[in-house]
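Hey, resending since the last one bounced:
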Amino acid sequence: MKKHIFDKFADGVCHHTKLDKGAIFNKSKSPEIVLARQSLFYLCLDRGLTRAMITQYMAEEGYDIGGGAIKYGINVIKSLIGTDPDFKIIIDKLSKV
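The C-alpha cells again:
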C-alpha cells in the first residue's frame, strides 16, 4: 500500500550514502550499510509506515528481518538524532522525499 514511500526512502538513503540499492538489502554487517538500513527504518516509521509494513517491504526486497530488529534500528537513529546535530540535518533532508 505504501511501497512507493518505502522505495523513495530507500533510493534517497542509497543516493546520500552512495551505496548500491542492493547493498542495504543484503545481510552485510558493515557499519555504513547497517546505518543506512536503520535510517531507512526510521524514515519509513516517521512517515507512517508500520513495522509490519517495513518488515514486509524488506522481505519483498530479499531481506528477512523481525520487528524487534527494526525497533532496535529505529532507536539507534533516534539516539543519533538526539546527540549529533549533523545527523539530524541529514535525516531531516532525507525525510523530505
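The radius of gyration is 12 Å.

Sorry for the duplicate.
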